[in-house]
Amino acid sequence: MQNDGLVKLTPRLKAVAGLVLPGQPMADIGSDHGYLPLYLVSKGIVPSAIAVEVRQGPWAKADHQVRLHGLERKIEVRLGDGLKPLKPGEVATAALAGMGTQTMIKILTESMPIVNRLKRLVLQPMAEIPVLREWLYRHHFHLTHEELVREGDRYYVVMAAGLGHKPMPSVTELEVGPLLIANRHPLLVPYLAKTIRQDEQVLLELKNITTEKAVRQQQLLEKRLEELKEVMTWLSCAKP
Length: 240
Ligand SMILES: C[S@@+](CC[C@H](N)C(=O)[O-])C[C@H]1O[C@@H](n2cnc3c(N)ncnc32)[C@H](O)[C@@H]1O
Known about the structure:
Layout: H1 11-19, E1 26-29, H2 35-42, E2 49-53, H3 56-68, E3 75-79, E4 93-99, H4 101-109, H5 112-115, E5 120-125, H6 129-138, E6 141-151, E7 154-163, H7 171-176, H8 178-182, H9 188-206, H10 212-237
Bound molecules: S-adenosylmethionine (SAM).
């Protein structure tokens, strides 16, 4: 088998791959093309993988890729919903990438007996990231790693969580990422600067709307901007 991998991953998926527990079976939930398990198995990072897809089209695509590379003995492609096609304890890591937070929470909530037997969750949510962080801490998980990745002018947050109760991070930490702050991640300043610019733009637009909902949104956004700016100030003042 090749040691340089069969597929070249984007920086986002490479960051996801980088947080998977090496040497132990993994599952990629919502695998689509199947690139993540193909990469991990062909590089020998994990001994085996299960790719799960809920839609027939992507399932067939991933299954085809696996057969094309002769990896069907090491990568199983299962058609099904979330973690339901897995047995408890079957894999050490479950990765969920490129989905919204609400989809991830639904998938995790519907399979808690499986979730509670995982050694690690690797998550790359596309939106509502603070909600996902809070959900993890409320369900006896804690963050063990947080990464920021840039692709063009887009930033992605990739996180790993392990089981075990730890105190809930502060509101600001939930908003920005407790480990991104603690580790002063090198992309945190440009990431926050971009988020602040976007929020300020939305705030300007909301100021023209006087409905109760818009006013409430304005208040929430102003509070969030305050938190983001506080972290920016801390990052520029605090010594490494
Ligand atoms: C945007 S793609 C992301 C693909 C890949 N994980 C990545 O990050 O590049 C999301 C994939 O998740 C699949 N998906 C959504 N909900 C799912 C569920 N409940 N169970 C399994 N797959 C699901 C979709 O069919 C889709 O192929």
